[in-house]
Amino acid sequence: MRIISWNVNGIRAVDKKGLFIPFVKKFKPDILCLQETKAEQKQSPIDLPEYEEYWNSAERKGYSGTAIFTKEKPKNVILGLPENIERKYNLIDDYGDPNKEGRVVATEYEKFYVVSVYTPNAKDDLSRLSLRHKKWDPAFLEYVRTLDKKKPVIFCGDLNVAHKPEDLAHPKPNEGKKGFTKEEREGIDKIIEAGFTDTFRIFTQGSGHYSWWSHFANARARNVGWRIDYIFVSKRLASKVKQAKILPEVMGSDHCPILIEM
After folding, report:
1. pLDDT in the model for residue 227
2. Could you tell me the CA-to-CA distances from 260 to 141, 172, 204, 247, 250 in Å, in that order?
3. CA 73 to each of CA 41, 50, 70, 136, 195: distance values in angstroms, whole numbers, following the listed order
4. How far is it, in rounded angstroms, from Cα 26 to Cα 33?
């Protein structure tokens, strides 16, 4: 089984470049998790008859959004975080309610769950760091832990943080900045402490492996990037992961896809 996650930074934009359908045909994911779709399903020109599509789009037009394309019809589909968790963590901030930004979609299968997530960005001035650190990260972790009590979970997406210094090309000058604050990094620490495994690091250590590049200064060509996209699995699934890769050769977005095979 092949699972791919990709922040497409606008699915219509990637498709307009003629890159989305060829990517799917080449890599043939069984389950494809997307983030930052920036569209509703009815606005998407994509036609993939072999896939079921499940979208969670933001209320705000052309913003955020997640989707899961799957060859196997799931038993159940869950959009967003459950109401009880949203209430418990009081997710709203000055920017609005992140649970209305289409940031989470989950599909349930017979033996596992798959979750596509697009974590809120802390913002350049760190004005959304408090929401992320005190509300979103613990709320999302509680959600996947709740699912994990029922059956194993595979969750993936753009978590908008480089976990360790080896996860970005220039850690020293970015210390304390958006995407590399101790608060954001602590969110990944807690995911791992809760028993989830960063699949890429099962197979590959060290720096130079990135999934996002700035548009400035020819950063992608020079591989001056950040690894902020992840596929995590419940610890009891880790031994079943046979391969985990980043696909920097796939163009179309400022992020590249990541995959696991199980």
Report:
1. 98
2. 21, 30, 13, 11, 16
3. 17, 10, 7, 29, 28
4. 16
Which amino acid is residue 1, in one-letter code? M
64 burial type by CB count under 10 A (0-12 exposed, 13-18 middle, 19+ buried): buried
- Enter the pTM of the model: 0.97
CA angle 99–105–110, rounded 5-degree value: 140
Q: How many residues does the chain have?
A: 262
As a whole number, the mean pLDDT across the chain is 97
CA nearest to 46, candidates 102, 6, 101, 85: 6
Give the mean model confidence (pLDDT) for residues 36-65: 95
pLDDT at position 189:
98
Q: Which residues participate in catalysis according to the annotation?
A: 118, 158
Q: Where are the domains of the chain?
A: 2-261
The per-residue pLDDT for range 117-165, each reduced to its tens digit, is: 999 999 999 999 999 999 999 999 999 999 999 999 999 999 999 999 9
CA-to-CA dists, residue 32 to 28, 84, 107, angstroms = 9, 28, 11
CATH architecture of 2-261: 4-Layer Sandwich (3.60)
CA dihedral of residues 234, 238, 243, 249 (deg, nearest 10): 30
Give the full edge-to-edge strand order of the sheet including 52-56.
Answer: 52-56, 66-70, 31-35, 2-7, 258-261, 243-246
